[in-house]
Structures are given as structure tokens and as C-alpha cells.
Amino acid sequence: MSFERRIFIALMLCALVWIGFDLFAPKPPPPEEDPQAESAQGDGDVESKEDPAGDSKEADAPEGKAPPTDGPEAAKDSTPTEAEVETVHHEISNDLLSLKVTNRSPARGGVVEEVDLLSEQFEGHETATDPLGLRGASTLEVNFADAQSDFRIPGGQAFEVESASSDSFTLVHRSEEVQIKQTLKLLEGYEGLMTVEVSNLTQQDQRHVMHVTTRVGITGEEGRYNLKRGMCRTADDFEDEDSSDVEDGPITYGTDPVFWGGVDNKYFGTLVVPSEPFAECVLSRSDDGGYLVGSLASTVATLGPGEAKRYELGLFVGAKELERLQDFAAVSPANEVHLEEAIDWGILGGLSEYLGRMLLALMRFFHSYVGVWGWAIVLVTIVIKIMTLPLTLKQMASMKAMKRIQPKIAALKEKYGDDRVKQGQEMQALFAREGVNPLAGCLPVFVQMPVYIALYAMLGAAVELVHEPFLWLPDLTKQDPYYALPLALGGMMVVQNRMMPTSGDEMQAKMMRWIMPVVFSAFMLFLPSGLALYIFVNICLSVVQTAIQVGRNTDEPGAETDAAKGGAKTKPSADKNVGKKK
Q1: What is the C-alpha separation between 237 and 322, in angstroms, rounded?
Q2: What is the DSSP pairing of strand 291-297 with strand 280-285?
Q3: Are residue 365 and residue 221 in the same domain, yes or no?
Q4: Assigned domain for 292 exists
Q5: How many CB atoms lie within 10 A of CB 18?
Q6: Mean pLDDT along residues 505-521
Q7: pLDDT at position 116 over 70
Q8: What is the pLDDT of residue 523?
Q9: Cα(413)–Cα(416) distance, rounded to whole angstroms?
Q10: Whole-model pTM?
């Protein structure tokens, strides 16, 4: 039998089944009209007019008490279809933050569709209108897990707008099974409060799991200064994963209670703090790969008939300023929340954070007097240079001492070239006689390194520097557009290396004089100009210090000849003394 004949027979059988069902199946009686429902339809306000079933009654129900689920009152309630609920776009704001919200999202219910920052610092820049790189995508979206919830909310379902004001937005969804009331309210600064009340409208126990989803856009090549992270604060530790960590699949934290979570980029973030710990935190990429997604999941809640559960979620949306994160007070959870952990202080962990906070406080102190962040960086550099001056002086003295005994070291290497053990013993004896410690030149560098790393991290994390100009630099958090600072920095490194005494191989020293400035300048071409400014000023101060302590360059050919002559004069007398002793 051909394929076309099979299709024809199948269509004929379908037609016969439909005709037989229409002839023999009884038709339902027409619905009876309820005059009370018709009268209630004309008494509602603007929002309730979209619901001919009279949903205004459930808005009048006492908070925390579920509306009736049986009897004549329940029969009059029905859920408006998607076409009956008009899509609403609204804006709520305070002094620093504006959120554009809607009652319809790509998934279910209302959502934040745009974040704007109102501070003068960000005015006129892209960070004012899209600091999180959302590009129209949703964030702060509330959802319920289908697999773990006894009710279903259709995809793309719009919630009804119960109320909307300048700083708050309330949505309601009602079906035969559940009522969900969601309110988003902005507080002071970058803080907000989201409350979600879930009411069981059935006569059976009902369970659910609530999810809160946040997003941050992934743009450009990821690096130290273009980092996108998802964060989970559990009872055990603070966990963060960048977008490359979740390329191969979601990462879940859920063995310990989750105190807060969210997503961020270098200077801005969206953090969610539930008043009671949640059960799970999942970090992943969006299906299109353009967003890093963080999702918090509540514990499984079971509601009896007519019972309701209220969730309180504290929100932080905006610039990651240290004091605002420390003073977060949108909710009062049982466990302490340290939102300042969202600031990336560098690779040294607690030590880097401790030093970074001190340096940030010092920079803010100077800014309060000079009023320009660039000059504040210069003053911080001077203070650090003065504090580390004893160590650098010791390092310089050690290098000069090593240079002074280089002829004797060379003689020992030539004499005991084949006997490494004897050579090492004689060198140790030489260092002891001359009072020279070869490690003294390295120790100051290791002591200063944590300070430099902390300063490096602080300058890269201080949101106060965003969009702040200085001299020809348009933004201290961006690279120098003219590359003048990195090139000047390289030139000053050449000058400094020419002035520094050398204690090793001359050819190697000459190579380092040129290789290090070139490599360092190339490295600084793409780093924030605020950091380049610090390093440039630090090298300038080092050149001044070296000029004072060392004077003219003793590595010039004439100086080398004089030193060689001096060594030649002293050597015979030493040999004579040795001969006399024999």
C-alpha cells in the first residue's frame, strides 16, 4: 500500500470518529447567568475591570488568610486568560536607583527589565542605563519549580497589577490552586525589599519550591578587569564562579544552607538575601551563552488547606561600595550577612582585604581634602613610599655591598670552579667576613609585595574611580587612550635601572635594563590608568631616592676600570700576607 493511500485512509477514519462523536455524545447545557456576578463586574476599579469574574474580592481578603475555596463565593472566582491581562510597564525609583518593572516576563509573572543608576558619577555613561549589561534581559525573576511544586503557572503568564507607586510595585496571580502576591519596594540607596506570599487555595496539603533568578551580561573578552561572576554564600564558605567556570554546565551549591547569592561584574552587582536560609544556589550560563545566571532555591514548603507562607528577600542592586555593602539592612536574617565579600580583593584573601580596606580608607581621606581621585592616588603612593623607605634603603645597601665584593666572588668561582661544595663554603665565609647577607636585597621585596598586591586589587575594585577623569585620562578605571602613561613609565624604568648598582653578571644586567621596561610597559598598556598612575609615581619616587643615595651611575666604563685597578692594587698585598703566614 502506498504512503498516499495510508494518509487518505487515516484522514477518513478521523472524520468518521468526529462525526460519530458529534451525533451520539450528549451536548452540555448552556451556562446559567449569575446576576450577582454581572453587578459585581461594574463595581470594580481599573485593574479589576480586566477580570469579569470579580477578582477584586481576593485583593480585599485579609493578608495571610486564603480566600474561600468552595461554596458560591469560590464559584464566582476565575483566572483571567493571558489576553485579558494587559501588559504593564512601570518605573520605581529612589535617590540612587531606578528599576523598570513589568507584569509579564519570558517565563512567568513580573520581572525587572531594566536597571538605571541615578548618581551624578554615572550620569551620561553606559553604566547609568545598563550597569549589569542586561541588554533588555530579565533579572530578579520569581518562579516556582514545576517538579517540586503541586501547582503550575503557565509559561509567559502575566500577573495582575494590584498596585503601583513611585517606589513599589505589587502583582497578584490567582488560580484554583494557589494565590501568589509579589511586591517589590525600593528602600534607601541601592537596597530594596521583595516579598512573596504564597497561599494554598485547595483542600489538600500543597508543597512548593520558589526560585529567584538574577542575570549579568557577558560582554567582551573576560579578564581581571572584565570579570563576570556568580556568587553563593553558604554556611561554610563564600563561593564565586566566573563565566568560564560554568561553560561546561551548571555548578550547584546546596550541601549547606545558602545565606545569599547573586551575580556581579567588576563594579556592579545584584545580590539577593533571604530572611531565612535557602536550600540551593545554582550558577549557570543562559542558553544563548550571553548571560551568567544565578538562581536561589528555597527549601520545600508544605502548606495545609488555607495556609500561606511569606518570603522576604532583601535586595542590593547597584554599585558595590564598601560602606553600603557593610551597612546592608533591607532584611534582618538570623545569620550575619557580609555582602562586602562581593568585592574582589585579590589573590591573598583576608590579608589582601585587610590591607586593601586600609588603603581605600587612606585614599578616601586624601580625596576629602583634594577633591580629585587622581591626586588622592598620588598622595597614597607617597605615603606608601615613605612607609617602605627603611626596607628599600636596606635593599639598596645590600646591593651596593654585593657589588663591592664582586671581584672576590669572581676570584673564588675561578679558584674553586670544579668543587661546588668548597666554593659554597668559601663564599659563606666571605659573606661572614664582609658582613654581607645576600638575601637582604630580596627580603624587603617580599615584605612589600603584599602591600603592592593589595593596592593593585584595591585600585581595581574601588567603584569610586569609575568615570573619574585625571589630567588627560578620561577614566581612571580604563586604559590610557593615548598610551602616554605606560610609555613614560617604561622610560622612567630605564632611568632607574641605569642608576641601580648591579651585583651579578654584567651582560645579564644590561639585558634586564631594557627587557624589563619593555615588558612592563607592554603589560601596562591595557591595565586601568589609575593603577598605571600609581606605578609611574612610585618609580619616579624611586628614581629620586636612588639619585640621592647612589649618586651617579657607578656602572660606567670609567668606574669599572677604576674599581678593577683598586682590586688589582689590593690583591698583591693580600697574597703577600698569605705568603708570610706560610
Answers
A1: 20
A2: antiparallel
A3: no
A4: yes
A5: 10
A6: 72
A7: yes
A8: 78
A9: 5
A10: 0.73
Q: At what angle do helices 389-404 and 373-387 cross, to 10 degrees?
A: 50
Angle at 135 between CA 243 and CA 132, to 5 degrees: 55
Q: Mean of the pLDDT values across residues 265-285? A: 94
Angle value at C-alpha 563, between 562 and 568, nearest 5 degrees = 95
Q: Is 75 domain-assigned?
A: no
Q: How many domains does the chain have?
A: 2
Min mean pLDDT across 172-176, 334-338, 571-575 is at 571-575
Instruction: Name the strand (E) or helix (H) holding 29.
Output: none
By three-state DSSP, how is residue 564 classified?
A: helix
pLDDT at 442: 66
Q: Residue 159, SS3? A: coil
575 located within any domain: no
* pLDDT tens digits, one per residue of 468-491: 999 999 988 888 888 888 888 888
Domain match, 122 and 146 both: yes
- Pick from 187, 177, 110: nearest CA to 146: 177
Q: Are 295 and 351 in contact (CB under 8 A)?
A: no
Residues spanned by the domain of 116: 89-339
Query: H or E stretch including 255?
Result: none
Q: Which pLDDT value is given to residue 491?
A: 85
Same domain, residue pair 330 and 383 = no
Sheet of 160-164: strands edge to edge? Answer: 160-164, 168-174, 178-186, 191-200, 308-319, 268-274, 258-264, 229-234, 238-242
